[in-house]
Design a protein that fits this description.
By secondary structure, the protein is an alpha/beta fold. The chain is built from 16 helices and 13 strands. It has an eight-stranded mixed beta sheet with strand order 3-2-1-4-5-6-7-8, sandwiched between helices. Strands 10-9-11-12-13 form a five-stranded parallel beta sheet. α5 links the parallel β5 and β6. The protein starts with a strand and ends with a helix.
Length: 431
């Protein structure tokens, strides 16, 4: 029976461990957190992901999955640890280095080491391998190394781990083949063999493409406000072209992938990644742009209630969330209340949180917010004004309940003039 040691039992490592364990590969999971290790050994999980808990529970009962805080000898190793960015937008590969350093003392001939963590180009060859070779063994001859990045969507991880195509980047052909054979335990998508640097860059490019696309949409949103038209109409109509797929604008880009991965490319070749850097700056600036819009509407000390704070809809992940950044900016001058049913610390009654609010901001388009009773909401707020950054709420329904509805990226002259006029009247009457 094949065995694999997976280092890092977070958003990617744990689902990957569960998939291997449920498909006949015995898994030894390793995490620096004793609490996480204990939780998994109890058949429970510490993250939210559909179907994951059932698989983990059954795998633990079947003795196919166990967790520890120490790395031990194993036939195969997979590194699935976080790779954040520093404050100055450089890749922090500290966890990758620590994982590699935990492996080399127990590394043996014919072992396979796979790096799944998203890393800057050449990290596998220039950083990982030299650490592993402290074992006295030679990469590509005595042991095998590959970079196989994940390509999954939170909320659909279990399905996509099995069905998505997979890039298998080996330091040589034998390394790639061994990695492919290991993943074939559960992967049903196409497994594309290449070298490690190409695999690293592919993962970064996939997320960079989306980030650049969103940056274009966000820049168009600002342009449309200046030119007196509606970006949401522009996006809708241009996407009717058979070769155009423009993404949607919003209050910024978050998460551990899109807001991070492009910086890995910029950090590697800063003199040449000019468009990528500019796109990142545009998206990073959107929370400030939205904050300025809000502050232009409200006097200091006003109350704002923000609906949603995760980095995207219908997930519980707040990593790199633009809404968290937006709230931080606003708190310098306003009273800010955040409501998010998917985040424990912000899971509160919407109507109680919105009591005496001067502005309601739609930050995240969670499905649960579709159930908001606008009639009830209109009775508890101080001023009936909504700023929708996601084009999510029904404008007509909001206006029927007495709200002034402002949509990010809608600069339609008559629309914008009317909205700002109504806000001014509301504020004047309140004084």
């Amino acid at each position: 029976m094949k065995e694999v040691c997976i280092i890092g039992l977070g958003y990617i490592g744990l689902p990957t461990a569960a998939m291997f364990a449920s498909h006949g590969v015995r898994v030894r999971g390793v995490d620096i957190s004793q609490k996480i290790s204990d939780t998994i050994n109890e058949g429970k999980i510490h993250i939210k992901e559909p179907y994951l808990e059932q698989i983990v529970k059954q795998s633990v009962l079947n003795k196919m999955l166990s967790a520890d805080t120490k790395v031990k000898k194993c036939e195969n190793f997979i590194i699935a640890v976080p790779t954040p960015i520093t404050e100055n937008k450089k890749a922090d590969i500290t966890y990758v280095i620590k994982a590699a350093e935990s492996i080399y003392p127990v590394l043996e001939k014919n072992n396979l080491v796979i790096l799944e963590s998203t890393v800057p180009p050449r990290c596998t060859t220039d950083i990982l391998i030299p650490i592993l070779e402290k074992s006295g063994l030679k990469a590509g001859e005595d042991f095998y190394v590959a970079h196989c990045p994940e390509r999954v969507l939170p909320g659909q991880i279990i399905y996509e781990l099995e069905h998505n195509n997979r890039i298998i980047g080996g330091i040589n052909e034998e390394s790639a083949v061994k990695a492919r054979d290991l993943y074939s335990a559960f992967v049903r998508g196409e497994m594309c063999i290449t070298n490690t640097t190409t695999a690293e860059l592919c993962k970064l490019t996939e997320n960079t493409y989306r980030d650049v696309n969103i940056a274009l949409a966000n820049e168009l949103a600002i342009i449309c406000e200046k030119l007196g038209t509606n970006v949401w109409d522009v996006v809708k109509f241009v996407n009717k072209h058979p070769r155009v797929n423009l993404h949607l604008p919003g209050p910024g880009v978050g998460g551990h992938c899109l807001a991070v991965d492009p910086w890995f490319i910029v950090d590697s070749v800063p003199d040449f990644a000019k468009m990528i850097k500019l796109s990142r700056c545009i998206n990073d600036n959107m929370p400030l742009y939205v904050a300025d819009k809000i502050l232009s509407l409200l006097p200091q000390g006003s109350k704002v209630v923000i609906l949603g704070c995760t980095y995207k809809a219908d997930v519980d992940d707040i990593r790199e969330s633009p809404i968290i950044e937006l709230a931080g900016i606003l708190k310098q001058k306003l009273t800010v209340e955040i409501v998010d049913p998917l985040v424990k610390q912000y899971d509160k009654n919407i109507y109680e949180a919105a009591n005496e609010a001067d502005l309601v901001v739609v930050g995240v388009n969670h499905k649960k917010f579709k159930d908001i009773n606008l009639s009830v909401l209109s009775k508890v707020v101080n001023k009936k004004v909504i700023l929708d950054t996601r084009n999510f709420l029904d404008k007509k329904a909001a206006e029927e309940n007495g709200f002034t509805y402002i949509l990010l990226g809608d600069g339609s002259k008559t629309y914008l003039d009317e909205a700002l006029n109504e806000v001014a009247i509301v504020l004047e009457n309140a004084v």
